[in-house]
Amino acid sequence: MLQHSHNFSNQYYLKSFTMKTAAILSLAASASAFAPSHSNSRASVAVQETKADLEVLAKELNPVVGFYDPLDLADGEFWDGTNEETIGFLRHAEIKYVLAVTMKR
């Protein structure tokens, strides 16, 4: 009878230890998901596009419509920047807006 209670105690200890270990490992795994990454996953690339580049790109991407800029934004120079900086800002804003709208759905 004493032997039987000893086996039960070992089984209970092993089950308790296994569950605690699993809980600790799952907490460690979930915490590591929010840890900052040390690698630079995005490389910064400076792209300087002109209105002529946009016209060529527009014709390649959609030959039916082509280049369409009814507000003449491609000719603008915002915040005392160059025309290329303005085009880069507008393209960045466009991509950011499209991603935000896509993620919201």
> Which spans of ≥5 residues are poorly predicted at pLDDT below 50?
none
Query: Considering DSSP H and I runs of 4 or more, what fraction of the residues is helical?
Result: 55-70%
**What is the tally of helical segments?**
3
Radius of gyration: 30 Å
- Morphology call: elongated
Largest sheet, described in full? Answer: none
Strand/helix succession: HHH
Distance between the termini: 65 Å
Number of strands: 0
Overall domain count: 2
Percentage beta strand: under 5%
Average pLDDT taken over every residue: 78
Which class best fits the helix and strand makeup? mainly alpha
Any key phrases for this structure?
105 residues; mainly alpha; 2 domains
What do these coordinates show?
- The chain has 105 residues and is an all-alpha fold.
- The protein contains 3 helices and no strands.
- It has 2 domains: 1-33; 51-104, no CATH class.
Tell me briefly what this model is.
The protein is mainly alpha-helical and 105 residues long. The protein is built from three helices and no strands.
Which SSEs are present, and which pair or pack?
Layout: H1 2-32, H2 51-61, H3 83-104
